[in-house]
Task: inverse folding
C-alpha cells in the first residue's frame, strides 16, 4: 500500500513591519454592506486581527444606509466570514465572537450631514471606551461616483484632520500625534480630466500624505519582488537595459467574463479596468531607475519618471500599435460560454474592448528602442499575470541551426499570479557526444522556496496604511501620468469604426490581429 505525500505545512508570514507596532485605530468602512467589503475587506481584516495579533485595539465602524444597528451588522459580518473566508483560514467560534466585539455601526446616507456628526460622536466614544486614540482610517469601498460627496462631508464635519485633544493609548496618551488616513479604491477617475478633478477635491480636504490610493496588485508579493530581484542582485541590474534586453511582455489574462459588472465594464473596458492601473504599476516597477533609498517618495519618484517617459500616442500610432478585441461565444475549460454582447446588461451593439494588445516605448537611455508589449483580456484560456523579459541573442552564434533547433531565447519570467514565482530559461547542451542544445527552465516557486504562506494583497496594503507607509500606494502624479497615456489611446479609438474591435472566441488568446501586431516585429507572444 503506497502512502500519499502530503504538502508541507507553510509557516505563517509576518505582516507588521520589523520594529513597527501598529497604533490603535478606528477603521471606518464606507459602503460596508457592499460586495467589495463583504467579499474582500472584512475577511481580510478578520484574518489580519486574528492571525497577526497586536497589543493595540483596532475597531471597525460601518457607515452604511441599511437600518442594521450593531447586532444586525455583526450578524451580517459573521455570515460573510463563513461564506468568503478560505476553508483553511476560517475562524472558530471564539475567534468570530472576538472579532464581532470590534464591530460598530453608524447608519446614514452618504449625503446626510447629521450622519457624519453621529459618526464623529461614535468615534470619540470609541477613543474613550476602546482606546483608539483619535487615529482614523477611512476606507471608501463605495462606487466612485460617491467619493466626492463622502470626502466633502468628512471635511465639513471636521473628520479629515486629527482632533487636537485626541489621545493615543487607553486614554492616557503616549506622546504620539494622532493620524487620519483615507483609502480610495480604483477606478480613480475615468480619464485624465476627471482624475485631476478628483485629486483637486480630495487634496482640498486631505493632505497628500494622508491619501492612500489603493491598487491591490501592488500588495502581491511578486510585484514587490520585482524591486528586490532587480536591486538586490548584482548579476541582474547590469543586464537590465537596451544593450541586453530585446523586449518585454506583460500579460494580465483572465478566464472569467464580466461577472455581472456590465454597468461598470461597458464604460471602462479592458484598457481602463486593467491597463491604466495594474499594468502601468507593474511596468513602472519593472522599468524604473534605482531609487536613492527605499522611502515611499523616492520609489514613487522613480516610478513616475517611467510614466513620463512614455509619450502619448498620435492617432496614427494608435492605429499601428494597438489592437482591441471583444470575446464571442466559445468553449472554456470544456464549458460553452456566451459572448460579451450576450452578457446581461451589455448593449447588443457594444464596441467595448474586453481585450487589448499594445506596444509602448519608454523614451529614455535605459530603454531606448526596447518595445514593451502588453496584453490583457477576458475569457482567455487561463488566469495568469506575468512579466516576461526576453534577452537578446548572443552576438556570434558558434552552434549550427541544426544543433540549436531545441533552443528558445533566454527569458526571465516573473509570475505574479496565480502561482507566484520566477523562471529563467537558459540554453544547455544535451548529454551525449553531439553538440545538441536545448532550453532548461530554472524555476522557483515562492511558496516552495521559502515555505511561507503568502500574504493576501489587501492584508498587506491595509497593514501598511495603518503603519503610515505609502510605498505601495499610488501618488497623485502617477495617476495623472497614467491617464495621460491611456487618454491618447481611447481618444483615438473614438474616431475609429466598430470594425476595429476584433472578435475572438472565448477560450482563445485573442484576435489574430494581436498576433500580427507582434509578428510584424519578428517576435511572438509567450503565453503563460
Result:
Amino acid at each position: 500500500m503506497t502512502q500519499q505525500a502530503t504538502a508541507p505545512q507553510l509557516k505563517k508570514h509576518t505582516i507588521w513591519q520589523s520594529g513597527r507596532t501598529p497604533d490603535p485605530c478606528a477603521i471606518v468602512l464606507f459602503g460596508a454592506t457592499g460586495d467589495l467589503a463583504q467579499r474582500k475587506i472584512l475577511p481580510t481584516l478578520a484574518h489580519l486581527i486574528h492571525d497577526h495579533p497586536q497589543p493595540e485595539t483596532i475597531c471597525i465602524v460601518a457607515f452604511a444606509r441599511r437600518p442594521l444597528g450593531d447586532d444586525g451588522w455583526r450578524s451580517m459580518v459573521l455570515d460573510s466570514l463563513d461564506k468568503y473566508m478560505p476553508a483553511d483560514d476560517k475562524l472558530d467560534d471564539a475567534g468570530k465572537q472576538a472579532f464581532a466585539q470590534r464591530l460598530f455601526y453608524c447608519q446614514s446616507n452618504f449625503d446626510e450631514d447629521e450622519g457624519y456628526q453621529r459618526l464623529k460622536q461614535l468615534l470619540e466614544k470609541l477613543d474613550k471606551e476602546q482606546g483608539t486614540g483619535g487615529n482614523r482610517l477611512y476606507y471608501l469601498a463605495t462606487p466612485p461616483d460617491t467619493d466626492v460627496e463622502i470626502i466633502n462631508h468628512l471635511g465639513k464635519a471636521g473628520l479629515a484632520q486629527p482632533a487636537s485633544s485626541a489621545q493615543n493609548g487607553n486614554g492616557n496618551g503616549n506622546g504620539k500625534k494622532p493620524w487620519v488616513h483615507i483609502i480610495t479604491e480604483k477606478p480613480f477617475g475615468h480619464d485624465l480630466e476627471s482624475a485631476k478633478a478628483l485629486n483637486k477635491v480630495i487634496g482640498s480636504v486631505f493632505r497628500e500624505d494622508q491619501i492612500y490610493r489603493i491598487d491591490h496588485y501592488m500588495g502581491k508579493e511578486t510585484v514587490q519582488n520585482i524591486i528586490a530581484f532587480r536591486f538586490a542582485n548584482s548579476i541582474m541590474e547590469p543586464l537590465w537595459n537596451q544593450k541586453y534586453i530585446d523586449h518585454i511582455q506583460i500579460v494580465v489574462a483572465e478566464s472569467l467574463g464580466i461577472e455581472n459588472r456590465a454597468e461598470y465594464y461597458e464604460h471602462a473596458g479592458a484598457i481602463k479596468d486593467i491597463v491604466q492601473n495594474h499594468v502601468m504599476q507593474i511596468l513602472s516597477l519593472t522599468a524604473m531607475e534605482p531609487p536613492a533609498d527605499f522611502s515611499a517618495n523616492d520609489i514613487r519618484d522613480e516610478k513616475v519618471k517611467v510614466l513620463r517617459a512614455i509619450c502619448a500616442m498620435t492617432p496614427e500610432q494608435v492605429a499601428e500599435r494597438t489592437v482591441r478585441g471583444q470575446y464571442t461565444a466559445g468553449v472554456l475549460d470544456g464549458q460553452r460560454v456566451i459572448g460579451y454582447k450576450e452578457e446581461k446588461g451589455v448593449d447588443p451593439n457594444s464596441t467595448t474592448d474586453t481585450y487589448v494588445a499594445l506596444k509602448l516605448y519608454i523614451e529614455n537611455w535605459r530603454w531606448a528602442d526596447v518595445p514593451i508589449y502588453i496584453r490583457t483580456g477576458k475569457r482567455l484560456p487561463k488566469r495568469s499575470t506575468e512579466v516576461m523579459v526576453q534577452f537578446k541573442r548572443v552576438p556570434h552564434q558558434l552552434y549550427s541551426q541544426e544543433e540549436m533547433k531545441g533552443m528558445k531565447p533566454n527569458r526571465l519570467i516573473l509570475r505574479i499570479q496565480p502561482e507566484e514565482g520566477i523562471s529563467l530559461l537558459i540554453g544547455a547542451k544535451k548529454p551525449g557526444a553531439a553538440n545538441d542544445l536545448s532550453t532548461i527552465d530554472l524555476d522557483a516557486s515562492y511558496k516552495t522556496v521559502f515555505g511561507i504562506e503568502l500574504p493576501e494583497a489587501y492584508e498587506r496594503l491595509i497593514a501598511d496604511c495603518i503603519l503610515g507607509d505609502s510605498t505601495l500606494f499610488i501618488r497623485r502624479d502617477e495617476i495623472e501620468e497614467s491617464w495621460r497615456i491611456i487618454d491618447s489611446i481611447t481618444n483615438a479609438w473614438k474616431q475609429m469604426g466598430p470594425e476595429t474591435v476584433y472578435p475572438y472566441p472565448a477560450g482563445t488568446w485573442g484576435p489574430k490581429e494581436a498576433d500580427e501586431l507582434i509578428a510584424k516585429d519578428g517576435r511572438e507572444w509567450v503565453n503563460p
Observations:
- The domain at 25-165+172-185 is CATH 3.40.50.720 (Rossmann fold).
- The chain has two domains: 25-165+172-185, 218-452+476-520.
- Confidence is low (pLDDT under 50) at residues 1-5, 166-173.
